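hey m, so remember when u said the tokens were messed up on ur end? i reran from scratch. heres the input so u can diff it against urs
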Amino acid sequence: MAGAGLPGASEVSKAEWIEVKSIQNPGGLLSAQRKYGLGPGEMSAIFLAKELGANPVLLDDYKARKLAKAEGLKILGSVGLRETFYLRRYLTNLRSAFQQLLMRQPFLKPTQLT
């Protein structure tokens, strides 16, 4: 599994509610990556969201979010996901969740959390 050894990898691999899906058109993935300058993870997420009709698509990368929006997809990022979990009472301490996110995601700035 990609990401083995990362925080949460063990929990994800054991979660019964998570389904692994493959992209139906993997041939178009590489050319789309080149065209839009995105990595395989971001491009795969957009491809799969379009194929499955998944909305929202989880993305943090600015260029990926911009492309997904242009493709008619709704977007949810790390910050919005935590806010949603807090509002649905899956998280009890949003401030702590944001602090942990800032420690693990160096691309985020504290101003993005206000």
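this time it looks ok to me. The chain has a mean pLDDT of 87. if urs says something different then somethings off w ur setup not the seq
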